[in-house]
Amino acid sequence: MAVMPENSTCLELTISIPGSSSSSSFPSSGEGGGYNLMRELDINQVPSNGNINEEEISIEEEEEESCNINGVNGGRPRKKLRLTKEQSFLLEESFRQNHTLNPKQKEALAMQLKLKPRQVEVWFQNRRARSKLKQTELECEYLKRWFGSLTEQNRRLKKEVQELRAMKVGPPTVLSPHSCQPRPASTLTMCPHCERVTATIIKDESKI
DNA sequence: TCGGTCAAACCGATGA
DNA sequence: TCATCGGTTTGACCGA
Hints:
Blueprint: H1 34-44, H2 54-70, H3 85-97, H4 103-113, H5 117-169, E1 173-175, E2 182-184, E3 186-190, E4 197-201
Antiparallel strand pairs: 1-2, 3-4
Helix pairs in contact: 4-5
The chain binds a DNA duplex (16 and 16 nucleotides) through residues 29-32, 35-36, 39, 42-43, 67, 71-73, 77-83, 100, 103, 118-119, 121-123, 125-126, 128-130, 132.
Family: Belongs to the HD-ZIP homeobox family. Class II subfamily.
Domain Homeobox: 74-134
GO molecular function, one term: sequence-specific DNA binding
C-alpha cells in the first residue's frame, strides 16, 4: 500500500493511487493534529500520568456495555465512547501497518485495546473513510492548480496565435529582383488541427 | 449559548 | 453470509 507523506507538495500527475492514503501518524489522530489529542486528554484521561489504569478500563467497559444495551437498538440514545490516547495510538499504528484487518487481527487488536471487535472494525472503517477523504482533497487541490496552469498556458497560446495571424494579414513585402513586383518575404501556413503557424522563407523566387 | 467541527456509531447497499 | 463502503446521525467539545 503506497503511503503519501502528509505534507507532500508533489505535483506529479500520478495522483490517482487507489487505496493509497496520507497515513497520518500519531499523535495527530486524523486531521486535527494536537487538537484531537488535547481533546482525548480532556475527556478520557485522569489528570495523573496519562496511562490507562484498570479502573478506567473497567469504567469504559461498563459504559460500553451500557452503550450497547442502551444504544439505538435499545430505543434509548446511544452513549458515545471516546477512545483514550493509548487506544488511538495503537489503532493508528495498526492502521499504518495495514488498512484492513482480518478477523483474527481484529480480535487480537480488540483484546489488546480492551474494546469490542465491532468497535475496532468501526474505527478502521471510519479511518479508511478519513484517509480517502484527505486523499480526495489533495487530488482536488492538485487538479485546481493544474487547471490554473493550463488556463494560463491556453491564454498565452491564444495570444501567440493572434499575433501570428496579425503578421499574416499584413506581411512585410520585398521587391522581386526580376519582376520588380512586390512579394511576401515569407509564407505563413497554419496547421488546421493544432493551429500552429509555420513560416517558409522564400530564398530564391526562381525555384517557386 | 450557539454554531461549527470531529469522530464514534449506525444503516442500507453492494460485491465476493 | 459477511466484509466493506458511502452516507448519515449523534454526542462531545471548542471558540466566538
